[in-house]
Structure to design on (457 residues):
């Protein structure tokens, strides 16, 4: 087993890693940090949870010349959620170095404030390709001093159609640079991306040490038009605390979520038509367990950071086995058992046959007739979400909200779940049975001496 000391890191970085509780490097860190530190290009196969952010982030930060106030590192990510996570992790890793400025530049929010932040300078930029391209076109971002480019979740960026944007961005970056490519899967398109943009990359593929996910997969043959009934039946039968159901179109997401809602299930749709504010609200409510079923398109579900989902349902079989693997891989994470269910109509059989290729065992088919006989038994969500019309910009902090909720015979602290703070609003999960009491408490009381509008989401 290696240690961080053996990887050639600076003393302040080592002390900071210790403080962060990173005792031993993960497999991808052990293999990637030395070449990254040596300035080599690296292509790494690594998923979220493998420690990949530190695998590229540590070397990137160690190479920064903090006194040179120019963008020296750029990390391209497929989604805003991932960019936010990466920036947060980098800020923690950078704590040992004084005054490292890390900026996120993503779409879905106003560009004006980003231009303002850029004018103050930054050492590292984390962002989504579309918005980075916008800034390059406007001339508000300069990459002429860039030393390290990271393509994070490169396979997802390609899936999401960012190839052209990436080409355009990379064309504006100095050729003399280090390029680090991270991808969860290894299709030909990733290999050709590497060939286009990397120089003799060190190939880091770690599979050792990662336990094979424990996922039970079942397929059901259903008739066209039975999707809602089949979904309701699986939910009633399995009673998952959380479930992600994949659809192909936005319209199908909306229709299914509405139909489930009418039957008493707690379900919401997530798709690309939602604006950022609604998307935030949906993701927060799903992650804090006040919504049980998220009905999503593949694209909308990218970058979703929800660990250990007990159940994933494919309302239709995915078009290819890579998408199927991506979907199913969202359950059974972190060594926990997961379950994946796929519905298939007779005319979709060819898609399922494609999934069969390369598997060790035949697909396992369930009894659809028995399934359809299961009566509706919606599982109510454990939590409800209070939405407070005040956030970071009003200097509201989680502690203030917790204080307002639990003070003066309010709700017990144990009944308060996740608190998600945004610029202008805040979401608080409360045990469902105490949600009305919590609402009254906040309506009557004050947060930081101020009254804010509060409602149940
Ligand atoms: P990532 O795969 O980059 O999303 O990282 C997954 C999680 O593991 C993050 O919460 C990191 O803070 C944490 N982490 C990364 N490397 C280590 C390590 N060597 N030891 C302990 N935790 C780590």
């Amino acid at each position: 087993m290696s240690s961080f000391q053996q990887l050639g890191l600076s003393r302040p970085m080592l002390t900071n890693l210790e403080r962060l509780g990173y005792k031993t490097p993960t497999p991808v860190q052990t293999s990637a940090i030395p070449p990254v530190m040596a300035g080599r290009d690296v292509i790494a196969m690594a998923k979220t949870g493998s420690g990949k952010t530190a695998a590229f982030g540590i070397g990137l930060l160690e190479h920064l010349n903090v006194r040179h106030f120019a963008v020296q590192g750029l990390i391209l990510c497929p989604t805003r959620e991932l960019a936010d996570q990466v920036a947060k992790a980098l800020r923690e890793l950078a704590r040992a170095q004084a005054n490292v400025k890390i900026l996120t530049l993503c779409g879905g929010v106003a560009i004006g404030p980003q231009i303002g932040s850029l004018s103050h300078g930054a050492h590292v930029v984390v962002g989504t390709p579309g918005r980075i391209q916008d800034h390059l076109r406007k001339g508000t971002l300069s990459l002429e001093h860039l030393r390290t480019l990271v393509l994070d979740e490169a396979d997802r960026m390609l899936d999401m159609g960012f190839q052209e944007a990436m080409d355009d961005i990379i064309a504006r970056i100095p050729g003399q640079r280090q390029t680090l490519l991270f991808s969860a899967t290894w299709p030909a398109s990733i290999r050709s991306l590497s060939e286009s943009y990397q120089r003799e990359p060190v190939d880091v593929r770690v599979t050792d040490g990662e336990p094979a996910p424990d996922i039970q997969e079942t397929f059901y043959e259903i008739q066209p038009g039975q999707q809602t009934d089949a979904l309701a039946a699986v939910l009633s039968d399995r009673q998952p605390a959380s479930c992600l159901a994949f659809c192909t179109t936005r319209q199908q997401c909306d229709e299914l979520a509405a139909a489930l809602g009418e039957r008493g299930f707690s379900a919401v749709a997530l798709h690309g038509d939602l604006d950022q504010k609604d998307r935030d609200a949906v993701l927060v409510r799903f992650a804090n367990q006040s919504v049980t079923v998220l009905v999503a398109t593949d694209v909308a579900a990218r970058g979703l950071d929800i660990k250990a989902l007990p159940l994933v349902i494919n309302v239709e079989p995915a078009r290819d086995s890579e998408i199927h693997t991506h979907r199913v891989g969202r359950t059974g994470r972190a060594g926990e058992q997961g379950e994946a269910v796929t519905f298939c109509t007779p005319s979709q059989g060819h898609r399922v046959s494609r999934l069969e290729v390369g598997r060790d065992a035949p697909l396992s088919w369930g009894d659809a007739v028995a399934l359809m006989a299961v009566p509706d038994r919606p599982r109510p969500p454990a939590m409800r979400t209070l939405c407070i019309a005040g956030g970071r910009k009003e200097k509201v902090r989680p502690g203030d909200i917790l204080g307002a909720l639990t003070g003066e015979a309010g709700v017990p602290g144990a009944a308060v779940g996740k608190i998600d703070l945004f610029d202008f609003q805040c979401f608080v999960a409360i045990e469902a049975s105490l949600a009305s009491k919590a609402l009254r408490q906040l309506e009557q009381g004050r947060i930081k001496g101020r009254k804010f509008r509060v409602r149940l989401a």
About this structure: The longest helix spans residues 80-93.
